[in-house]
Design brief:
- It is a single chain.
- The chain is an all-alpha fold.
- It has four helices and no strands.
């Protein structure tokens, strides 16, 4: 036979939920601000060949995602539509000292730089998502804790 929770128990659990919720909201907001501040400090503007948000400063999840898309498109065009695998295979089939090999190595380096930049931007997008999730979870915990404390009255 189980017993119903007592009013003091509900108040305690509600208080813990509110405290945890406040912590989640604070940490989520802090992470969002930290990532946005770091992106803003890079002074990156979305270029004119972007599908949207042209000229906007990269400082949020949408502008970071759009910038990553632009970098991907530019890298693919710069490499003539080739991938790392395509370039590696082509390098194996040419003389290492040839002009073609030098051009392939340039394309490979450009793709590598673009991949690194895109990874950083997509990590920022993910960080924004995690911070929003933390803030949303915190809000839910605060609401739950408040309801628990009210029901204990």
């Amino acid at each position: 036979m189980t017993s119903s929770p007592t009013a003091p128990d509900l108040r305690s659990v509600g208080g813990l939920a509110i405290a945890a919720g406040c912590l989640f909201v604070t940490v989520g907001a802090g992470a969002w601000v930290a990532v946005a501040t770091q992106l803003r400090a890079e002074k990156i503007d979305v270029p004119g060949n972007a599908p949207m948000l042209k000229g906007k400063r990269v400082q949020g999840p949408v502008t970071a995602y759009v910038e990553a898309l632009v970098i991907k498109g530019n890298a693919e065009r710069g490499a003539g539509g080739r991938t790392f695998a395509d370039i590696s295979a082509a390098l194996r089939g040419v003389d290492g000292a040839s002009d073609e090999a030098a051009e392939l190595r340039k394309q490979s380096a450009a793709l590598s730089t673009a991949a690194s930049l895109r990874t950083s931007l997509m990590t920022a997008v993910l960080a924004f998502g995690v911070s929003a999730f933390a803030g949303g979870s915190g809000t839910l915990l605060i609401a739950t804790g408040t309801l628990l404390r009210r029901s204990a009255r």
